[in-house]
Amino acid sequence: MEAVILAAGMGTRLGSLIPKPLTAIQNEKTIMDLQIEKLSLKNEIKNIFLVVGYKKEIIMEKFPDLLFVYNNAYARTNTAKSLLTALTKINDDVLWMNGDVYFDAEILNLIFESSDSACLVNKSECNTEEIKYSLTPEGYIKNISKTVESSQGEALGINLIRKKDLDIFTSELRKVTDTDYFEKALENLTVAGKIKLKPIDVGSLFCREIDFEQDLLAVQKYHSSKNGRKC
Fold first, then answer.
1. For residues 22 and 59, is the Cβ–Cβ distance under 8 A?
2. Helical ranges in 41-156 per DSSP H
3. d(CA 14, CA 4)
4. Is the Cβ–Cβ distance between 34 and 41 less than 8 Å?
5. In the chain, where are the structural domains located?
6. For the CA atoms of 99, 17, 230, 106, what is the dihedral angle to 10 degrees?
7. What parts of the chain have a pLDDT lower than 70?
8. d(CA 9, CA 82)
9. 21-51: b (≥16 Cβ within 10 Å) or e
10. What is the pLDDT of residue 10?
11. In this structure, are residues 93 and 162 in contact, taking their beta carbons and an 8 Å threshold?
12. What pLDDT does 231 receive?
C-alpha cells in the first residue's frame, strides 16, 4: 500500500501565511509531523507521497526523505487534480488524506481491515461546509459531497482505494473539473454503481479536519489532553 498526503492548497480559511499542514499542534509538532509519524508506524505502507504546491519549498525542506509530487496548477485546481498527480505514479492500494486532518493512529487499523475501497466517516449533523454522505440500501456510500441532503454524517478526509478500483478512479479524476474535490470522482462512480465504497465509522476515535480556528483549538486541546502536555 502507498500513502498520499494532499498538501498543495493555500489553506486560506485558516488565515496562515504558511502551508496549513505545517500548522503547529503542540510545540514544534505540526499537523503533517503527526500524520507522517502515524503512517510511518504501519508496515502496510511502503511509501509516503506528499503532493505539494503552495510554498512547496518549506514542506520539502522539512521532510527531505519523503517522495514529492508537484501540482504546478495548485492555485487554480482543487483536490481532485492534486490527487491525480500522485495516482499517476502509483500502481497499488492507496491510502490518502487531506493535509489538514488530525486523527488517532488506531483509525488506520479500521481502514486497513476493509477489503473494499473505503472512506472514513462519522455519524453526526453537518454544516454546509462539510463533506457529507448518504448510503445505498446495501450500506455502501452512494452520494458524497457538500450538498448531500438527509446525510448520515461527515466524510472525514481519509480514504482508501483498492488496486482493483484504481484505474477507474484515476480515469474519473481526469474527467472532473479543475475546481472539483476528489469526492466528485468518487460520487460519480458510486452513483453509477461502478465501485463499492465502504463507510468506515470512526466511532469513539478522534478525527477532525482543521479548516477554521475553532477546529485548530479543538485539536490542540485534544492532543494536549491525550499526551499530558501543554500546547
1. yes
2. 56-62, 79-87, 106-112
3. 22
4. no
5. 2-226
6. 0
7. 15, 228-231
8. 9
9. bbbebbeeebbbbbbbebbeeeeebeebbbb
10. 81
11. yes
12. 38
| C-beta of residue 107 within 8 angstroms of C-beta of residue 218 | no
Q: Specify the pTM.
A: 0.94
Query: Which residues is 133 bridged to in the sheet?
Result: 144, 153
Any residues with CB less than 8 A from the CB of 188 and at least 6 apart, and which? 172, 175, 176
The confidence score (pLDDT) of residue 131 equals 92
Query: 39-60: per-residue pLDDT in tens?
Result: 999 999 999 999 999 999 999 9
Euclidean distance between CA atoms 219 and 113, whole angstroms: 26
Predicted local distance difference test score (pLDDT) of residue 226: 85
3-state secondary structure of 182: helix
Cell digits for 93?
A: 492500494
Burial 98-132 (b: 16+ CB within 10 A, else e): bbbbbbbeebbebbbebeebbbbbbeeebeeebbb
CA angle 85, 118, 100 (to 5 degrees): 55
User: What is each CA distance from 179 to 25, 39, 158, 176, in whole angstroms?
Assistant: 29, 28, 20, 8
How much is the pLDDT for 11?
75
How many helices (H) and strands (E) the chain has is answered by: 7, 13
What's the CATH code, domain 2-226? 3.90.550.10
Structure confidence at residue 127 (pLDDT): 77
* Residue 227: per-residue pLDDT: 78
